[in-house]
Amino acid sequence: MDAASHLGVVVDLSPTHWYLSSTRTQHNARPLSLKSFLSHLLVFLNSHIACKDENTLAVFGVLPGRSIMLYSSTSESSGNPLDKADANTYRPFKVLDATVMRTIAEHVENLGPSDLEIPGELVGALTKSLCHINRITTTSSAHANGQTASIDPRILILSVSPDQSLSYIPIMNSIFSAQKLRVTIDVCKVYGSESVFLQQAAHLTGGSYLHIDRADALLQYLTMSFLPPPGIRQLLSVPTQDKIDFRAACFCHKRIVDIGFVCSVCLSIFCQPVPVCSTCRTKFPIKTLQRLNAARPAVTTPTAAATPYIRSPASLPSSNAIKVGAVNGSQAAARNGLR
Amino acid sequence: MPPRLVENYNGDDSDSDVDIFGDFDAGVKGKGKGKGKAIDRGKKDKGKGKAKEQSYAWEASYTRSWDTVQEDEAGSLQGAVEDLIARGRRRRLLAPAAAIRRAIIRHLILLLDLSSAMMDRDMRPTRFDLMLQYAREFVTEWFDQNPLGQIGVVGMRAGIGERMGEMSGNPQEVLKAISERHKLEPTGEPSLQNAIEMARASMSHLPTHSSREIIIIFGSLTTCDPGNIHDTLAECVKDRIRVSVVALAAEMKICRELCDKTGGQFGVALNEGHFKDLLFELIPPPAQRALSTGPNARGGATAPADLMMMGFPTRLPDTSPPSLCVCHSQLKSEGFLCPRCGAKVCDVPTDCDICGLMIVSSPHLARSYHHLFPVKTYQAVRSLDDTPNASATCHACARPFKDAPQPMAGATGEGMSPLGRYRCPDCQNDFCAECDVFVHDVVHCCPGCGK
């Protein structure tokens, strides 16, 4: 591949979840500490800039309540005078390692005990990374006037914390802007449960979503699946995504729902029938409310709420029969209620 | 009759510096950022008063365009040009951000004139070819911005209306309907009435909460109708169909009346570029306010709203074990699972064949959310006196800010910051001009506060 590629890495540095990841429990048979994670990551970052001389890199950290830029290979001030020339190390590697580690250390030092509860600012890091890519692509196309301006940008998100349903809309907005900029978003879920929003991000931008089974082999996963740029990946067989959950977060309680009630005017999603849309102040007819309320119990039974993860095609017929019966019953009830 | 002058349209022959903005706009559009721009423009056009104040280009007084450009110390013009570009971007952002109610579930019939007048060569290569080319781009962009909408295509030729494509929510099907040039060969006289009646009939079954629109691309100066077209017009008003016309030849009284009475937009294309502009102005969802305040409002009632139950499915990968789908009874691996009954359907959006639940993919809905929650406009920072420890770099892209205020060419104000800093009113972070535009036009989410 001739085109240079730009990689934006968004690293989730949530202290709570890294603690959980590093402790050995029944479910977490192969713990991975932040320290060993960072050494895996630095090797991966080094190999990215080693792949091609023109490759650029930007690293963003997600901390509780804020997001920071850890390293950018395009900013001129990154060359720090404190590190002396080392005959055994390639200088860009050293600069990269030192800058990333130093910035992380600085910011982690400043964390207080109150920060442990605040969720990480993934959206901030993602949008910053997009702004950075926007700047690089626009300025480079202005300079080179389209001849060698084809930088191939992509973003890799290394996530350990679960979804923040509060940030559903901003994440979706970032995904659509990534689509517009033709940025591929790859997601590597290092620890924790599947992330619905990041699955959608990878699916919509044509990236790959990888939930790794053996955290101690992280570097292997990173180099095999995320090092080759999207152009080359067509020739390799990169792991494809399994099921994708298209669930959304409701606007009223920020719950993640699989059946929602949608305002026909503004398309806001609610988890229960509401008389007035909280977004556009539209009043809904009382008949609709009655009908939907009557249909609802069948929807929000505990089994229906708990099944989405374990639902598999093989188990369908039986669940079909039960649920369809329940639904029909509720519709009949709704009709009776209206009379 | 002379066409109405459209704001911020630059003719090819104008030699003022405004051309810089024109070029820039074209550049932005080429990168697929047309969305924000088109919306802003739509907003501007809503304030018609502004357009009326402006005189026609040939009536305007002589402008000394070179006075607005000033050289810097080194005698270079680059600073001045950059300043002008930044000003142009910023101006688009300052469009009024008042709340407007827009239609989101849109139904549109594209009425294409296929009469012999379309073979005229005043637009290159012919009106017909240009119309097809723009119609294709229009459809693609329209579905990008109105993912839940549906488009049907009707052609008018040889005195009748001809259905080219059924109402469909799939861009590929619509594009297929207008892809085969030989099937659309223009001939005969057009009939506005027949075509509008056909379009009206194909939208009669739609639910009440959806918006109905007709967009007519009209190249002829005559229409050959079987009855009184004013009856058709009255029916359109009654059915709340919004008719917009892009005329290629000249203004016709009946076309103007169709648009005015139904709340649509009318425009006469001056040249190829203007044709595209007029057509693409119709892409952003129309404000529903215009309908209710228009002459056709029935007692001020807005379109009735409803709450709909929708399910968000799970997508099965290609590698899953094959099973029968409920819509075609075919053995397939990939598909979507209905969240209520677990049935497998081939494509979304659709209604589940088993339980009747409307199944949509949530990203489809989410595409429209930036209309609902726009990012607050950033304030231009005039001086750093009240913020002692201001950050040295842009909060989003980490580009260092200018230290000293840049001398501004021309009048200050217009929301320009001499320091190149724009501050979010919520999180008090500073952003550079480029990120300001990018955040408001594309991302719709502030990197500082994440909202």
Write a structural description.
The complex is a heterodimer of chains A (339) and B (451). Chain A has 339 residues and is α/β, with parallel strands linked by helices. Helices cover 43% and strands 16% of the residues of chain A. In chain A, the strands form 3 sheets. In chain A, strands 3-2-1-4-5-6 form a 6-stranded mixed β-sheet, with helices on both faces. In chain A, helix 2 (34-51) packs antiparallel against helix 3, helix 2 runs parallel beside helix 7 and helix 4 runs parallel beside helix 5 (168-180). The longest helix of chain A is centred in the middle third of the chain and has 23 residues, at 122-144. Chain B has 451 residues and is of the alpha/beta class. Among the domains of chain B are: 20-93, no CATH class; 106-280, 3-Layer(aba) Sandwich (Rossmann fold); 313-359, no CATH class. Chain B has helices at residues 18-30, 34-46, 48-53, 78-93, 127-145, 171-177, 192-202, 229-238, 253-262, 272-280, 289-293, 362-366, 369-372, 433-443; strands at residues 106-113, 150-157, 160-168, 211-218, 241-247, 266-268, 307-311, 314-316, 323-324, 331-332, 335-337, 344-345, 350-351, 358-359, 379-380, 422-423, 430-431. In chain B, strands 3-2-1-4-5-6 form a 6-stranded mixed β-sheet, sandwiched between helices. The longest helix of chain B has 19 residues, at 127-145. At the A-B interface, strand 3, helix 4, helix 5, helix 6 and strand 7 of A face strand 7, strand 8, helix 12, helix 13 and helix 14 of B. Strand 10 (259-263) of chain A pairs antiparallel with strand 7 (307-311) of chain B, so a sheet runs across the interface.
